[in-house]
Design goal:
The complex is a heterodimer of chains A (about 180) and B (about 240). Chain A has about 180 residues and is mainly α. Chain A has seven helices and three strands. A three-stranded antiparallel sheet of chain A has the order 1-3-2. In chain A, a hairpin with an 8-residue loop joins strand 2 and strand 3. The longest helix of chain A is centred in the C-terminal third of the chain and has 31 residues. The two termini of chain B are about 10 Å apart. In chain B, a hairpin with a 2-residue loop joins strand 9 and strand 10. Chain B has a domain of about 160 residues: 3-Layer(aba) Sandwich (Rossmann fold). Classes of the chains: A mainly alpha (about 180), B alpha/beta (about 240). At the A-B interface, helix 6 and helix 7 of A face helix 7 and strand 10 of B. Chain B: Keywords: ATP-binding, Nucleotide-binding, Transport.
């Protein structure tokens, strides 16, 4: 949400639309989730309600604390251990969708972070005893996961290079669904 | 440091057509350390390795192998250092088909003036260390890919080598055999205090290294692995 609010204040339904557009609708959001999240962000001082147009709908804008929080998020590699959804894929999709993020730097930081996990796993594999086959299988599963992620990052980087210089698509406009009009 | 590369620059061609393969790369490898170099094609990985091995002359910067700056030594001195101190492992093994495994391994020693009998003895020891002494009298064409790469590694470690340079050594091998080769390189560094540099595009193989550095467009852009300990830092700042 913070990423999408970075360039200008937006309505909740806009945020939902843009999130789905950026992540290819892989993780559909319902509008309730969007407003719950906005309320929580407002409580934490990361967004505030901006001037509404007098029609009852509230626009939200990002605060300075919110910008700091957002910068931290983009700068922090995702730990392999705890990934509720694929936060990394979401992070890259949003890094591309919003202006001003150095996407290749995000890719590079993630690559080195994942490489470090892969080194640690390889060390564990090396030190495991010959007979510990079930443990070795588990380590291998994690090694394959880390390896696949690095290959995917390489692939993303190559795709980014091919796309560099192509114009950013014009911002999408969204029709306000009738049942959301009154929500604030 | 066994290998100390400082501000290494390598430019091919001149003027508008100049290709900057490496642009001011620093890389130090300590005894017993294995460093993997990764990066997309054309990022300068192989150029870095050939400069480290004295096979290519940098445009600027220093390449110190065991304290000797390859960029200031004469051609013969570099060749001698290469024969005695530096071992090379290539993707396609580069074995001579007309020579047996032991003769291939003994070749660099013989070129350096060691008598045949002594060179053969050293070669058999090296083959023993990579676990294939029984293949000493076999020709490369009668061996599997994994066995041939072991012979190539034996050739790279024979005698008193201090620096092992490997360019995609697992590129032509299946994953199990490739992994065995990595284990061998790793053990070699751990047990004999050799410094190793491994160029690979394969993250799974790079992960065997103590440190993984990432090259892009001739510049080091990232590093993974433990930070150097305090002693190493002190040495570097000297």
């Amino acid at each position: 949400m913070l990423a999408l609010l970075q360039d200008e204040p937006k309505y909740g339904y806009q945020l939902r639309g843009e999130f789905e557009a950026a992540t290819g609708a892989t993780w559909p959001l319902n509008i309730g989730q969007v407003y719950t999240t906005l309320t929580r962000l407002e409580r934490d001082g990361l967004v505030r309600a901006a001037s509404s147009e007098g029609d009852g709908r509230s626009m939200y804008e990002i605060t300075d604390a919110g910008r700091t929080e957002l910068a931290n998020w983009f700068q922090t590699p995702v730990a392999r251990e705890s990934r509720p959804r694929d936060e990394l894929a979401i992070k890259l999709a949003l890094a591309l969708a919003v202006p001003g993020v150095d996407v290749s730097a995000v890719v590079q930081r993630q690559r080195m972070s994942t490489m470090q996990s892969l080194q640690e796993l390889t060390r564990q594999k090396r030190n495991s005893a010959e007979g510990e086959i079930s443990w070795q299988l588990v380590i291998e599963s994690m090694i394959f996961g880390a390896e696949a992620e690095i290959r995917w990052l390489d692939h993303c980087e190559a795709m980014l290079l091919r796309h560099r210089g192509k114009p950013r698509p014009a911002p999408q406009t969204y029709d306000v669904p009738a049942d959301q009009e009154a929500r604030s | 440091m066994i290998l100390d590369i400082r501000k290494l620059t390598r430019t091919h061609g001149q003027g508008e057509q100049a290709v900057h393969a490496l642009r001011g790369v620093d890389l130090a490898v300590a005894p017993g350390e294995l460093v993997a170099v990764m990066g997309p094609s054309g990022s300068g990985k192989s150029t870095l390795l050939t400069c480290a091995g004295g096979l290519d002359q940098p445009t600027a910067g220093e390449v110190l192998v065991d304290g000797n700056d390859l960029t200031t030594l004469g051609r013969n001195a570099v060749a001698a250092l290469r024969r005695r101190r530096i071992g090379y492992v290539f993707q396609d093994f580069n074995l001579i088909p007309a020579l047996t495994a032991a003769e291939n391994v003994a070749l660099p020693l013989e070129l350096d003036g060691t008598r045949s009998r002594a060179a053969y003895k050293h070669a058999v020891t090296a083959l023993q260390e990579v676990g294939i002494e029984e293949l000493a009298d076999r020709f490369p064409d009668d061996m599997s890919g994994g066995q041939r790469q072991r012979v190539a590694i034996a050739r790279a470690i024979v005698g008193e080598r201090r620096l092992l340079l490997a360019d995609e050594p697992t590129g032509a091998l299946d994953s199990d055999t490739g992994e065995a080769v990595l284990r061998l390189l790793r053990d070699r560094c751990d047990q004999h205090g050799i410094g190793g540099v491994l160029v690979t595009h394969d993250a799974r193989h790079a992960a065997w290294a103590d440190r993984v550095v990432y090259l892009r467009d001739g510049v080091l852009v990232g590093q993974a692995g433990p930070l150097p300990d305090a002693d190493a830092l002190l040495q570097e700042s000297r």
